[in-house]
Amino acid sequence: MTMRPLVDKRMFLGANPLFEGLAPEDLNDLVVTTRHKSVTTGQTVLRQGDPGRDMYIIVSGRVSIRIRLADDEEIAVGELTAGEAFGEIALFDEQPRTASVVTCEPCRFLLIDRDAFKAFLLIHPRVAIQLLAVMSKRLRATDDLLKDALYADVASRLAETLRNIAGAYGKNIRNGLRIDVPFDDRELGRIAGVPSDVVTAQLRHWANAGLISVHRGHLTLIKPAELARATDHHAGSGSSRGTN
Question: What is the CATH number of domain 149-233?
């Protein structure tokens, strides 16, 4: 089975986020460095822990991404189809593969070898600069995800702290569960293990959402049940999305 004409290789390369902004002449030169590979169903294309050398772009077919756990159990974490890519980190380092890839059906791939790619970059330095921008954007996106995950954890800890304090010192009043003992943001932060400025921002967000109220240092849980679910909707002032 052979790859179709040059224009198809250009199409698949140009559609990849790493290369979509390349000038036509640069894309043509990159195409020359590629090779194709056909694999039948149920074959391991990459094995977790093996050395990485090639980036794969799927021309046709479907693959399963699998991760081996500490007890040697292997779990599927996703699938990729035509137009998607895997193994691109191998172009930039020589670290072992972080996952295995197994074909779910007959597949055709477009491969880029690390050494060929490095040689390409040496004669196309502007592409290297462009790729740095692309990788930086990916890193920022990863940072956003990590910060959002951290924020969700922080919000969960603070919400749990408020519920525990309300369970110990709370008094049912007409509009909610009032904590009779005053706690300032620094004290709440110390108990929850959360910076006091984050406590201040989160309490303000929950107050604006109508979940709590604060009056003269006394905090009232207006909607305790919703507060328990509040961390599933952390689009408030504590979220880092869109700040870069």
Answer: 1.10.10.10
